[in-house]
Amino acid sequence: MHFFKNLTAKQKIILSVLILLLIVDVAFLAQKYTSDSSPLTLSFPRECNAPPSKLIALNAHAKSNKEKQGYAYYGFSNEQRALFTAYFDEYGDAALTIHVSVSHKEKTDDDANSFMYGFLFENDFDSRGKLKKEIDSRPLARTNVWQFSEFELALSLQKDSTDGFDSIPYGFFIYAPVSARVTACAVTYACVGFDKSGSVPFFAFPPNGGSVEQNSASVDFSGASLVFPTQNTLSAVMPKIIVLFEPADDYGTSQNPAVATVNMGGEKLTIYRTDALHGAETYTIQTSALVNPFARCEAGDSQNRVSALLMIRNDMRKNDGVNNKVFSPFPTDPGLIIKWPQNSWRTADYELFAWDRFPNVLLIDTRNYSVQNDFFKRLAFYVEKAGYRGTLVPDEELRDKHGFNAHDYRAESLASFFTKAESENFPLNERECLLRELLLANEIIIKNENGYSEGKGAVISISQESEELLRRRLLAHECWHGIFFVDEKFRNATAAVYYTIDERSRDFLIGYWQSQPTLNYDVSDEYLMHNEFMAYIMQQRVSEVASYFVNFTNWTSVQRAVPDLALYVRATRGIAFEDAAHVFDAYAFDNWGLSCGRIWTVR
Questions:
Q1: Pairing of the two strands 445-448 and 407-410
Q2: In which order are the strands placed within the sheet that holds 296-299?
Q3: How much is the CA Rg of the chain, to the nearest whole Å?
Q4: How remote is the C-alpha of 41 from its chain's centroid?
Q5: For 248, which DSSP code?
Q6: What is the distance in angstroms between the CA of the first residue and the CA of the last residue of the chain?
Q7: Measured CA distances, 356 to 155, 283, 363, 520, 553 (Å)
Q8: 3-state secondary structure string, 81-142?
Q9: Could you say which DSSP state residue 339 is in?
């Protein structure tokens, strides 16, 4: 005190400032080493509309912002758990993804190099909310840290709580055998598998954990049954599998395309490789189409290297089904629709799909021809049948007439049909009204003050009543129509082939159409003629095209209608149609990696 009295006023001010700074430093250090706050923040998906917030540090390691060995324990605040719960309840699944950075300063044995990541639950804390000194063993996500300098691990939540405990964790922990730290933490959608296509490898695990298999091209999806629905209902759908390949050295030709194999629980799928220019290196496999999806999946080989193999949720509208109706389509490759198990349908009468390569093309598969007729028969007469085009045929007249066993309609025609029905107050049946709802929900048609206007896309249909070989050909036929409707360049290319083909061969095909009362195409419709000309040729392989058209020349009805033209096509062996097929085949492969008779990339 005597010392302080002898100081000048200026010296006293300086000393006071120094003391104040010392107090602030001490307070800061005290807060740093006694606060429960961690420098690590938890991020949420955009849908949660919540800013990142700091996690609770449950040990000294979790308070540090430096790379360290050993255990780090992190807890969630009540607000964070509430957001986590809300996201999980809304979307039916969730995961916690961490980004890890590794320094590799230490030298350790490979056997001791297992990085571990697991959840903390309510029973890991005592009655005062403090983490217990010892926690029970539990499923963990593991990886050998010497493989990476940084990586991401995702651990998915279990869809159903067990033993009375909440599925939402109260926190998580890591164990690092070398100096490492978690640099980011986020609530994400659930997934199982890996993605090594980016600069930071990503590995995702089900609630029962697992380990990273170095350089593996396979994933055990059996634990994914704990995360995703295992059957389809009106309110929940099974997940999809994303397969991503590295670029191939050679994609082959239309007649000899490069292929890869995916073995899904013993069921072998063929993938026709296409590069990013022709679609993508990414392929979607819907688990609903598979016999045993929740099993080990092996993909690729030395010629087809897999960079991602992930099972994730289907991004479809929740609670879609009302009164046995679904409006949200399964995005899928057409090749999977052919044998898609009917017991995986969400309704008894129909299933709704969207072509993943051309998402504006909807496909409705129906239980039988009767259901399909209810959807499309009147529409077929309105759009395509000679003598009926532009007319809404009443039920009593329509009843004994034949429509088609497969259907295709562009947005313009669909909008016109429903506008006319509304303007005339025409009584549509229940499934026609459902079709209108489906088209509106998917913006194929758009409601306006004058009725309906065209949106983007088209709808096509096949039926389960067609046997498999016919389903395959009909699906190819209708899918080519679908591309024709949505791709102007393809329509122009088709017109060029139509007008340059041998004229007498083209006239024979038109004569064939006119000779068949079950077809009854309006041959004065140039757009329709181009479209059907293309699809009749492209629905089978090039090698089958000539014989397919020559076979028509042997039909009595055709010989009676166009005898000279039938004789001409038989004499020329249908070569004009085969020549046209080669042109179409080259165009399809160059633009989409497809070919005549093959509109699928997965089968």
A1: unpaired
A2: 218-220, 296-299, 259-264, 267-272
A3: 32
A4: 31
A5: P
A6: 91
A7: 28, 9, 11, 32, 38
A8: HHHHHHHHHHHCCCEEEEEEEECCCCCCCHHHCEEEEEEECHHHECCCCCECCCCCCCCCEE
A9: T
pLDDT of residue 301: 86
Q: Is 502 helix (H, G, I), strand (E, B) or coil?
A: coil
- pTM, rounded to two decimals: 0.89
CA distance 377 to 429: 11
> What per-residue confidence (pLDDT) applies to 323?
72
Pairing mode of beta strands 150-156, 202-205 = parallel
DSSP 457: -
Q: What is the pLDDT of residue 26?
A: 42
For strands 95-102 and 171-188, give the pairing. antiparallel
**Residue 192, phi-psi category: left (phi > 0), alpha (psi -120 to 50), beta (remainder):** beta
Biggest CA–CA distance in the chain, Å, is 130
Residues whose CB falls within 8 Å of the CB of residue 588, separated by 6 or more in sequence, listed in order: 254, 538, 594, 595, 596
Strands (E), 254-410: 259-264, 267-272, 282-286, 296-299, 306-312, 330-332, 350-355, 361-366, 407-410
| Helices (H), ranges, 463-525 | 468-486, 488-500, 503-515
Q: Which two tokens stand for residue 511?
A: 């004569």
Q: Measuring CA to CA, which residue among 602, 595, 600 is closest to residue 267?
A: 602
- Give the span between the Cα atoms of 566 and 142, in whole angstroms: 70
Say which residues have a Cβ less than 8 Å from residue 17's Cβ, sequence separation at least 6. Answer: none
Could you say which residues of the chain have pLDDT below 50?
24, 26-34, 111, 279, 319
> pLDDT tens across 271-316, in order?
999 875 554 578 999 999 999 999 999 998 888 999 999 999 998 7
Q: What is the pLDDT of residues 347-395, one digit of tens each?
A: 999 999 999 999 999 999 999 999 999 999 999 999 999 999 999 999 9
